[in-house]
Amino acid sequence: MIRALSGIAAMAMLSACASIVPTPGAEHAPPSVRDRPVPPPVAQAPPATTGKPVNALASGVQAGPPIETLAIPAGSAGAALTAFRLSCPALQKRSDASGLTQSGDWTTVCASAANWPDGDATRFFATQLVAVKIGTGQAFATGYYEPEISGSRAQQPGYDTPVYRRPPDLVEGDLGDFYTDLKGRKIRGRVQDGKLLPYPDRGAIEDGALKSKNLEIAWAADPIEFFFLQVQGSGRLKLPDGSVMRIGYDGQNGGQYVGIGALMRDRGLLGPGELSMQGVMAWLRAHPAEGDAIMRENKSFVFFRELKGAGPIGALGVAVAGRVTVAADPAFVPLGAPVVLSLDRAEASGLWIAQDTGGAIKGPNRFDTFWGAGDDARRIAGGMSGRGQAWLLLPKSAAARLGTADGGSSIRS
């Protein structure tokens, strides 16, 4: 998960897509690149019985309109086809927690994508896939990006905030190994005297719980900027010599994720016009002591590794792309599947590929759009809050099995 600076403007803020939280084959982290891709920073498992649908199949699946009637810009389709090809190997190997697809459903679609002409990408999606609606289809989309902050490989004056790698004593488990209805829910901690105990939370780590363990891979100049980079799940460190060190999600302590934007709003600390990433950061800088305490209420702490080559990396273990990758909940969207968003935010409407996850990206039709790096990406992601309709694109074999193959004349050869 760059995992997902999710929901800032809408104050589901500071979540992850993921970060891009990259744990190949799993759900911030990160993914990512967000809190993705990938899996996202996962906190303790929620109660088994919540009264809410546990996956897309339980939410209800309805046939959508013909794909060619959906607003898909040609440029959007071309970039999405490239990302879809990249995702196909992982998409075909993953076990689909959404209940929508089975092994082999994507084989024919991915084979067609491999040789499909780039200039005719819109027709690929319109003829090879079928649009369906999950539940009501009413979508809410936020945004995340790959931040760039000042950092150093070595501690020196002005660079005092440690960037930690994953500690070797951090363990995680899938609760589904013990309770089938909790499959995909993770718990993280450390073993001490034969017991699994919670790992130190953000406050304890910032107070030195990991000091002198030789876990530092870099040092950040600004603790507030680093906090936001952790929310994203990956980012870039601009080093003193002008070079860039890219870092990506390498685990999370298991602490509960708390969106501080929503917390600040509910306490009346933010007023109209301040409900954005920029507004939150301004308040934190203006109130350093109170701001530090508020950030510590987010118990989640993200660990990093240095990234080499393409990136950032999302929950599928592949590089994500700005204005193409979206973080989603894999219980409701097969990771790697295309999604069409029709929102009240034109820049976020179009065709996306679900390549990431996020700690706050939970439930049907909840998405976190990835915008890449740079000032524009930061501005758009920081203020993104779009509502509208979502259509998930599935293979024809899956649609036929779900009974949606003839709805909206979606199946065409």
What would you say this structure looks like, in words?
α2 (74-93) packs across α3 (107-115), α2 (74-93) crosses α4 (121-128) and α8 packs across α9. β9 (186-192) and β10 form a beta hairpin. It is built from eleven helices and 19 strands. 24% of the residues lie in helices and 25% in strands. It is globular and about 60 Å long. The protein has a single domain, classed as Barwin-like endoglucanases (Ribosomal Protein L25, Chain P), CATH 2.40.240. Residues 3-50 and 407-413 have low confidence and may be disordered. The strands form four sheets. It has a six-stranded mixed β-barrel. A six-stranded mixed sheet has the order 7-11-6-12-13-14. A three-stranded antiparallel sheet has the order 8-9-10, with no helix packed on it. It has 413 residues and is α+β, with helices and mostly antiparallel strands. The two termini are 36 Å apart.
Task: Give a brief outline of the structure.
This protein is of the alpha+beta class and 413 residues long.
Which structural traits does this protein have?
413 residues; Ribosomal Protein L25, Chain P; six-stranded mixed beta barrel; six-stranded mixed β-sheet; 25% strand; disordered N terminus
